Every structure is written in structure tokens, then in C-alpha cells.
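User: I want to check something. If I give you two sequences, will you return the structure for each one separately, not as a complex?

Assistant: Yes, each is folded on its own. Here is the first sequence with its structure:
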Amino acid sequence: MEVLCLLAVEEEVAQVVRANLERAFPSWRFETATSAGELKGWAGRNVDVLVLSRFLPGEDPVRLLKKLREFFPVSHVVLLAGAESDAQRAYVRAAKELGFTGIVTGRLPGDRPYTIFEALREVEKELEEERTMEELTPVEIPPVKKERGMLVLVAANKGGVGKTTVAVSLAVALARGGVPVALVDYDFASPDATAFFGLKGTPGVELLAGKPVTGELLRRVLVRARPGVDVLPGPADGAVPPFRAGQVTEITRELLKMYPVVVGDTPAAYVVKPWLKELFGIAEYVLAVVDQSRFSEHNVKSYAAKLLEAGVKPERMGIVLNRFSPRLASPKKVENWFKEALKGRAKAFPMVVAVVPSDWEAHVRCGHKGKVVGLEDPSAPWHRLAERIAAAARHEYRPVKRSFFARLFSKS
């Protein structure tokens, strides 16, 4: 398998560094990014190895380090810190605090014994070890058929890990990019999606129980929460409505005729709910939310197994890693834990598709106002995820750039 190595280094040395590394690692493919802007353009792509120079122009080097895992959650990273100085020592200290260990110091090729060549040889060994695991194909979001919309479900095996916030953030991001969305609160016992838009207590899905499902009836119950976001609220009293067998799936199929994307917020304890197993079976994509601060290796492996038992197809699964801190388990480890749990039971493994940093509470606070943190930043993780989902739904994603005053007075 080809190794893609991205060299994020200043333009003056880019070609020299690339030529030397191509001779040392002839089977690798090398690409270059000579500014922070170019580097961010690679975000969301499958970069195996990232070599980042402290001198890359375009952004403060420490600030860029802090965002690096949002852009490249599972890439192996080698940092080029440069010759010793106060700035270099501060950079190395910040890198270590953020959990980065592959740090080359000194003028290139670096201080011995840990030169850039040695650092990349260590990465090469790590890549070989990863590939000794059972070969599985990375999950790609499958395109939907033209005659229906795309169903995206957000799942978690415990409450309080940010599942509803992820569902709301994705729905708002898609709508802001020009993709109309129905946001469905399937968490009937603990409905919360409407509260994120200040619509708490609004009657919803209970009005549909036992009735013939039609688009006209659904339009009476749907609530316009934001431009482009219509919400099908959960029951106002938190009691599970008396749906007839298969009716929840009927409601969902009707919504898929009306909207290009339907985002569903699912209950955390899902194994015993047959209607939810039906939904997982027809979903094009399931986002498994992992709270990095609360999930151990055992938790993640158990979670992956429960998702399979609940009817989730491994080839249609992605991982959202929230409350991310580089000091905890790396995104690559989380992917590998899923992979190990799926050994012999799947032909594809889920990838980390979004990394939300440890300031998760800011997302929650904004989510309860129907807002999304960082949506004005074109490199925000929600944009990349929404763009991929929009493409699979056969829609163009066009995030709108707004003026300062528009952002100041906006509700979304």
C-alpha cells in the first residue's frame, strides 16, 4: 500500500527536502504544502505521514500545532523544530504538552541521532505494524440513489457524550451550505433536539402514532428551526408513542422523499429497540460519537460490537471523536480499537471523520442556541464532514461567507 507523506515546509527548502526523502523512501509518495493555507487544504484527506516545519509561513506555529489534530486526526506527525533558540524551546515544549513525540531539532537533516531520516524510519515501522492487522478497507460514504434522500444517524452507547450536539451541528452546517435538512429526534424517552433551538415542549412525533404516514401530515408536524433546518420533535412528554410495527421506518422513508438529507439523533441505549435496528439497517451513514475523555480501549471495543448487534453496517460507519486532547489516546488508536473489534466480522473499518477539540463545552453552549462553534472557519471539521455527506447525497455544498455584522446578529 502506498504511503502518502505531506511535507509542510517553507518554499525555500521544499524541493531539496523532497528530493532527499524520495531517495531515502522510494516507495513513498511525497507532496508539498508551502504555507499554512495550503496545508489546511489537505485537511480531511488520507495523509499517512505529515512533516511540519516550525517555519511554515501563514500562521503562528504554536497555534497551528494546537489545531493540527483537527485537520489530520490520524496522520503520523514529524515536527521540524529548527536550531536551538528561545522560540525553538517554546515550540518543543508546546509540542510535547500537546502529545507530539516525533520532534527533530537542529538544522536539517537534524541533530543526531534523531534526524529526519530516523524519525521517518520509526514512522515506517509503525505503519508496518498497523498493516499487520487484518486488512480491512477504509469506509467511504456511499452515494444514495437519486430517487431518495440520505439518512445519517448519530449514535452513542452512553448519554452525555455529545451525540445531540453532533446531530445539531451537522444539520446546521449542511443547511448553511445550501443542503435542506430534516433533523429527527428519535430519542423518544429523552428528546432534546428542539431545546437546542429554543423550541422545548413542542409537540411532535407523538402526533403521528397510529396514523397513515403522508407528506402532508408530516408537514403539519415539522417545525422550521432555522433556514434549511426542519425539526421533527420527539414526544413532548417523553413517553414513547404507540407506533405500529414498522411505522418509525415509514415516517423516515417519507421524510427521505422530502429532503436530500435526514439527520437522526438516536437514543443511547439502542440494543433492545427493534424499530431502531430497522433504521440502522436503512441508514447510508452512521456517526459513532466517541468522547475521548470518557472512553477506554475496552469501552470502544465494546461500543463497536454493540453497534454491530444493533444492526449498523460497518461499511457505513464513521467516528466523531469529541473532547479531543492529544494527551489522551490518539485518533489512530481509536480507529485501531474499532478495527480490532470488527476483525472477522466486517470487510471495512470506520475512520475518524471529525475531531472536535477539548473545548467541547463551547460547542454544547452554542448548540443550545442552535449555533455551531467555528462554522465561520472554512477549515472547521463540520464543513469537511458536511461536504462529504452533501456529495454522497448528490448535492453541492456551498458554505456562505458572511460579513462581520451578519455573523454578529445571526442565530445560526
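And separately, the second sequence with its own structure:
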Amino acid sequence: VPNEVVRPELDNLKAAVLAEDPIAAELAMEAIHLLPTRS
């Protein structure tokens, strides 16, 4: 299930945003986009 793969990345992104760390947030977003998409 793709959601189970994306969830950790979303948690990392959320944590980065809450920590006001734009660089980490950007890296998390890139990691999400780099994940293989399975339909």
C-alpha cells in the first residue's frame, strides 16, 4: 500500500515544518517526489 510508504516521509515533512526547518522540509518534499508511484 503506497500510503504506508509515504506516511513516514509525510511525518518527516511535518516534523521539519514544525521545527521551522525549511531545508529539511524541502528535502522531505524531494524524498516524497522521488518515491516510485504505483497505481
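Because they were folded independently, the notes below concern the second chain alone. The chain has one domain: 2-34. The chain is about 75% helix and 0% strand.
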